[in-house]
Amino acid sequence: MDITKISIKRPVAIMMVMFIIIILGAVSITKMEMELTPETEMSMVMIMTTYEDAGPEEVENLVTEKIESAVANVENVESISSTSSEGSSMVSIEFNYGTNLDTAITDLRDKLSMVEATLPDGCDSPNIMKMDMNSMPIATIVVSGDDMTSDELKSFAEDDIEPRLERQEGVASVDIMGGTEQEILIEIDPERLEGLGLTMTSIGQTLSAENSNQSGGSISYGEKSMTISTKLQMESIEDVKNTPIQIADGTVMRLGDIATVTETQKEITSISRYNGESCVTLSVTQSSDGNTVTAVNNILDEVEKLNAEYPDMTIEVVSESGSTIEDSRV
Q1: CA distance 242 to 247
Q2: Whose CB among 105, 108, 217, 277 lies 3.0–4.6 Å from 229's, allowing a Cys bridge?
Q3: Can you tell me where the transmembrane regions are (predicted)?
Q4: Which domains does the chain have, with CATH numbers?
C-alpha cells in the first residue's frame, strides 16, 4: 500500500483521520492521572524470615544461605544481597529492568516452597515483599577488600566512608551492617578484687574518667569477667592495661597487674553479603528537605573519589533511586 499516493488522492479523508487522532489525544490528556511523586514499581523484592533467639551466624547458615541458593536460579535475577542479624534474615533480590514482578514473585514462592521444609524448627515461613520506593534508602553501597579482616573492613567503613557520605548535601544518615568489631575483656578474680578493696563499679568509673570521650558504653560481667566497649579514646590494649587503679591503702597499680586484659571479637549482630560474598553494607537515607537526584549524584561522585583513593578496595553502589527519577523525565 502506497500511503503517499492515497494521501494525494484522498486529502479530505486523511485530514479527517488526523483530526480524529488530535481529538482523541486531547481527550486522553484530560483523562490522564498526574501526580507530583507518582507511584513507581521497583524491580526489587525482599524476603524476610524470622528465626527468634538465633544469633547472626546461625541465621546465616541455617536460613539465609538456603534461601539464597533457592532463589539464585529464578529467571531475570540481576543481583542478590543479604543481611543476617539476630533473630532475622533479610534477602534482597534485584531483577532486570522490565521484569514482571508478579510472575517473578510466583517463581520465588515455588522455589521457597522447596526449601521451607529444610529450615530449622521455630523458623517462620519466608515472607516476600515488594519494595516501596518511599521506604527505601536512596543508595546502598557495598564495601569489600581481599586484604582486610572483617573488623578492619568495618572500621574502614565507619572511619573513612561513613563521615564523607554524611557530609554530602541531601544526606540525613548512613547505616552500616555487617563486619565485626573488637572489644576488650577484663577478667578479675572476685576474691582478689575484694582483698584490694575494689569493686567492678569502681574500676569501670576509673576507666571512664581516664577515657573522658567514651560514648555511653556499658559494663557487664558474669562471675569473674567485665566487658568494656572498644569505642574508647584509648588507642590500644596497652593503654587499658596501663590504666592506674588506686587500691584501698592508697597504692596505685596498673590495671594489667591486677587483671587479665585481652582483646577479643565482639558479639556479631549482623552479617552482610552481596552475590554470595562477605561485605559491609552502607544504607544512605535522604534528609526530609533533600533532593534525591542531587544527593545521589553527590554520593556517586564521592564513591568515585573513594575508589580512586583506595584502589585495593571495592566500593560499589549497588542500588540508587536517582537514576530512576531521571529516567522518568524522559
Answers
A1: 15
A2: 217
A3: 12-30
A4: 33-135 (3.30.70.1430), 137-181+266-330 (3.30.70.1320), 187-261 (3.30.2090)
